[in-house]
Amino acid sequence: MRAWLQSNISYLTGTAEPVYGAEAIQPVTATVQGVNPYHTLTEDDSRWSTPSNSHVETQIFYIRPRNSNLMCFVQLIHSNLGSWTTTAQSTCRIFDLDNPENDLWTSTNLDQFSFENNRTCFRAANISIDLEGDSTYRIRSSVNMDSIIDIVVHQESPPFKIGETGTSNYGTDPTKPWASMKHVFWPRIRVEGNIVARGNVVDVSGTGLFIHALQNGKPQHLASSWEFALLQNPRYTGVMMQFKTPPSYGSTIVNVGGLVTKDKVVAVTVDNTIEHVDVKTDPETEWPEPTRIAYDWVGKDAETYQKPVHLSVDATLGRRLQRINVLSEIPTWLRGFVHNVSGTKPFIYQYFTPVTFKLNIDGEEIEEEATLFNETTFIS
Fold it and tell me: Do 317 and 353 meet the contact criterion of CB atoms below 8 Å apart?
């Protein structure tokens, strides 16, 4: 998320949009009211969109190694600033949950990049992300000597998207949207391989999550805040993604999620809620930083769409892994200009917490232990 926003920092000096109202967004959640939101992916969903207009597109692999207490992610971001420039950037993050001093972050601009094999594969100098078949990615990267990546990612549970397209559209004419937001999920992946982090070989074989997302428009015009949750234990994986639009689109909340096991999709859910139960004002940013969050996945089973499904987590957040100032890598004078002109001061808060969740399927309830990785992002 950090690189996603930073790669488009030029957008932040733009002026605010007119107030179109909530009727100018067609949330993907509205397209599946009363029907099963679960849809599997098509061949097109595996392709990079790379539209010619302004956009930000990303593939991100979240990884929880089985043999070490780490949380990792590998990400590729492609952005097009309209007539200005097109960029690609790779990032790698390793959180050492026992020894924070060993945390690793690398972010590298890429040269000579292209999309191949009908836009299912990305290539650049010293990096490749190749889709092999329809359920495996091979990632090799030596663009940064502090994070040399060689991993294979296998789809473990079935993938999903919300509705037929997985897309929320923006515009006063629904037949001619001027912007869009799309997410597709491989909610449970099996990872094999390693990352050479500052010369040390780190075995990152384990489980995780893959998301391919497209913001087809200027990011700060599409969302004013984000929430993300990844809940994992040996049996279940839950994922939730929420964004709130700026007032120009009625401060509309769009929340999508899903619950899977190793071999099936239990439920895809769109009536989810997120509550910041307790917050504290961060004196450095003045944002209301959450200290306790409640997540509720609410829907029906994916197979028959008859059985109610409710997954709930209410947790006091554990270690704050990082507070990311998205503007931190631009000059101080420009940072103030961006904030004064556009009213944006984007920060990302990331946490990792052991939790207990409750899962109720058709009246039968269980409780299990899990880990929660979550993000709260404030933009404007």
Answer: yes
Output the pTM of the full model.
0.92
Residue type, 210: F
Q: What is the DSSP string of 129-166?
A: EEEETTTEEEEEE-SSTTEEEEEEEEE-SPPBEETTT-
- The sign of the CA dihedral 345, 351, 355, 360 is positive
Token pair recorded at residue 266: 């239990």
Determine phi and psi for 303, rounding to 5 degrees: -75, -50
Domain containing 207 — which CATH number?
2.40.370.10
Reference 113, options 102, 103, 122, 124; nearest CA is: 124
| Separation CA 96–CA 92 (nearest Å) | 13
Of 106, 105, 122, the C-alpha closest to 114 is 122
| Domain region containing 193 | 2-378
DSSP 110: -
Close Cβ partners of 310 (under 8 Å, ≥ 6 residues apart): 296, 297, 298, 358, 359, 360
Tell me 17's DSSP state.
Answer: P
**Amino acid at residue number 58:** T
CB 74 within 8 A of CB 1: no
Express each pLDDT in 97-142 by its tens digit.
999 999 999 999 998 999 999 999 999 999 999 999 999 999 999 9
Read off the pLDDT of residues 14-42 as tens digits, 9 standing for 90 and up.
446 789 999 999 999 999 999 999 999 99
Segments of the chain with pLDDT less than 70: 1-16, 81-84, 327-344
Query: Residue 222 CB: number of other CB atoms within 10 A?
Result: 23
Number of domains into which the chain is organized = 1
Q: How far is CA 17 from CA 120, 153, 220, 301, in A?
A: 34, 40, 10, 39
Say how far apart CA 130 and CA 127 lie, in whole Å.
10
Structure token pair of residue 241 = 């993604």
Which amino acid is it at 86?
T
What integer pLDDT is reported at residue 79 of this predicted model? 87
Q: How far is it, in rounded angstroms, from Cα 289 to Cα 278?
A: 9
- C-alpha–C-alpha distance, residues 239 and 45, integer Å: 18
